[in-house]
Amino acid sequence: MRALVSVYDKEGLVPFVKRLVAVGYEIVSSGGTASALSDAGIEVLSVESVTGSPEMLGGRVKTLHPKIHGGILARGDEDDADLAAHDIGRFDLVVCNLYPFRETAAQPGATESEIIEKIDIGGSAMLRAAAKNHRFVGVVVSPDQYDEVATAVESGGLDRRLRRRLAADAFFATASYDAAIVGWIGDDVVLPLRHRGELRYGENPHQEAAIYRDEGASAWWADAVQLQGKEMSFNNYADTEAAWRLVTDLGAGTVAVVKHTNAAGAARGGSISDAFNRAWDGDSLAAFGGVVAINGAIDTVTAETMGGLFIEVVIASEIEDDAAEMLAAKQNLRVLIAPPTAGNDLDYRRIDGGFLAQRRDEVALEGWEVVSNRTPTVEETEALQFAWIVAAHTKSNAIVIANGPQTVGVGAGDQSRVGAAERAVAKAGERARGGVAASDAFFPFRDGLDTLSAAGVTAVAEPGGSRNDQEVIAAADEHGIALVFTHRRHFRH
Question: Which candidate among 32, 90, 404, 453 keeps its CA 20 to 30 Å from the CA of 108?
């Protein structure tokens, strides 16, 4: 039995190869891998001695040879004559991982030549050859597979199902590797999506669903720890993503309650429990059955309050031990402790036969311009900034009314802007009086501002840019409203 071993990442390599040697494998290797194994006292046959050819072109060519690829690609008995004629020995196992192209390309200051030298050729060729010939050859692409493969070898060999699964992993590794190269070298995009599990169903019970991870991308949900509760559903993931991104932008000490990806309420408070109460009270009717996101630690006071409410998911940065014990009584409540959102570059939207792609929307609080006669107070400005962030995370057309750092009325997804204002006012009621409002896009007419003024709103932030801006500014001055143009729109479809 022979194994071809050529890896860049040498984590766990020596103990793995020692287990192969112990069951009778001959090890063929080259370069730094061969040196690492030899230094560990493992007998290694060099690739050069197998091929009869030295490494060349600075190491670019060493395994690209018929005596290597013939040994990997040989089938059953039908290729015995060719193998004998050319003195080629079979390989039963190929262990290979690739140069760190993605990591090198992501390094600030990496030169084009440095990045290009990390495009693996021989490694990819060996992996694809072994994966193609998985009926006869096992292929190992990750240190995470070492223990399973070594255990199988020690138990008599790799069965067909394991070889097929390892081949699929190898093809995915080369495909995602090439996808990273495509993204770096040109305008095309190839998305390598790793299947992470089936979901019970999609948005509705008749829809099949699964969750996939973009290979190489950070993902809060993949690194989150679920402490308790039922499995996450399609809608749970969508709502939790929206809630977690919102509190990330709002900052530490904030809480958001989200329903159907829109905020039912959001708040900052003197404590997490205070912020939670204020967020829930923003719209307690809409909050029922929602997702709660906490940018901070769940304490016992907050846990006790949540214990009496119907909540689908709670996601937080941390949780106190006593709070975790209290929430454990609610067995169906999903509790996740997660890292911050990563802010990956591109958003994709599926359309028939393709995708729309855009840079992720970022909320800015700079460049604002006061266009009314009255300038907002410090308190109004702080409330406007809070409302503006929530509006940027709310489906268009969106109007968000806040009283201090607490939303009291959210008008989301309306077909008209005045309709969104009316919806926000209806939810806020008397709490709108003395509050502020943010509009995710400009007011096309003064009717939206008139509606907010009638409810008692004293300051408004909107992008500006309408041909009727002067009409809207005049309405603000007429009502004594402080009007700020943000000069940035936040449509969310």
Answer: 32
